[in-house]
C-alpha cells in the first residue's frame, strides 16, 4: 500500500511546473515611483559563469515610456564589479505602458567568482526622470561541467 502512495506522489511531482521562483525586489527609496516592479525572474538560477543568463523584470506603469535607459550596477559583497547603461527600448517593446517585461540577457565571463551578487537598476525616462529604482540579489554557481 505504501509503495502505491510513493508512486502516486512521484507522478504528482512530475506534473508540477518547473519555472523558477520570482526573486524578491527592494526599491531604492520610499519614493512613489511611476514604474512599479512586481518581480524578477532569473534563468538559470543560480547563474552559470560563461553561459547566458536572462533577467526578466515584470513591471507596470500608467505612463507611456517612449524612450529612456536602464542604468545597471552590480556589487559583489561591498565591491562594485560591473556597470552599464542600456537603451530601454532594446530591453522591451516601446512605447511601453501598462504591464510590460524588461528582458535582459547577459553572458558572464567564465572566470566570474561564485557567490552572492546584488543588482541595482534604475529606469530613467528620456527627460532624466527616475521612473523606478530597484535592487535584487542573485547567485553565481560554480563552473558547470560541459
- The CATH architecture comes to Sandwich
Total discrete domains? 1
Oligomer: single chain
CATH class: Mainly Beta
**What is the gyration radius calculated from CA atoms?**
18 Å
Query: Roughly what percent helix?
Result: under 10%
Strands, count: 8
Characterise the protein shown here.
This protein is mostly beta strands. The chain has one domain: Immunoglobulin-like. 10% of the residues lie in helices and 53% in strands. The protein is built from one helix and eight strands, in the order αββββββββ. It has one helix spanning 2-15, and strands at 26-27, 35-43, 52-65, 68-76, 79-87, 96-107, 115-125, 130-140. The strands form two sheets. It has a five-stranded antiparallel sheet with strand order 1-8-7-4-5, with no helix packed on it. A three-stranded antiparallel sheet has the order 2-3-6, with no helix packed on it. Strand 2 and strand 3 (52-65) form a beta hairpin. The longest helix has 14 residues, at 2-15. The protein is globular. It starts with a helix and ends in a 6-residue tail after the last strand.
Amino acid at each position: 500500500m505504501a509503495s502505491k502512495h510513493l508512486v502516486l506522489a512521484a507522478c504528482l511531482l512530475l506534473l508540477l511546473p518547473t519555472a523558477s521562483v520570482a526573486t524578491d525586489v527592494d526599491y531604492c527609496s520610499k519614493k512613489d515611483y511611476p514604474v512599479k516592479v512586481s518581480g524578477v525572474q532569473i534563468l538559470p538560477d543560480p547563474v552559470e559563469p560563461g553561459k547566458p543568463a536572462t533577467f526578466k523584470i515584470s513591471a507596470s506603469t500608467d505612463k507611456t515610456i517612449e524612450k529612456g535607459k536602464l542604468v545597471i550596477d552590480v556589487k559583489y559583497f561591498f565591491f562594485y564589479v560591473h556597470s552599464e547603461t542600456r537603451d530601454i527600448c532594446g530591453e522591451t517593446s516601446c512605447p511601453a505602458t501598462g504591464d510590460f517585461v524588461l528582458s535582459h540577457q547577459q553572458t558572464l565571463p567564465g572566470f566570474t567568482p561564485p557567490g552572492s551578487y546584488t543588482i541595482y537598476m534604475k529606469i530613467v525616462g528620456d527627460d532624466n526622470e527616475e521612473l523606478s529604482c530597484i535592487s535584487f540579489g542573485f547567485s553565481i554557481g560554480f563552473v558547470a561541467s560541459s
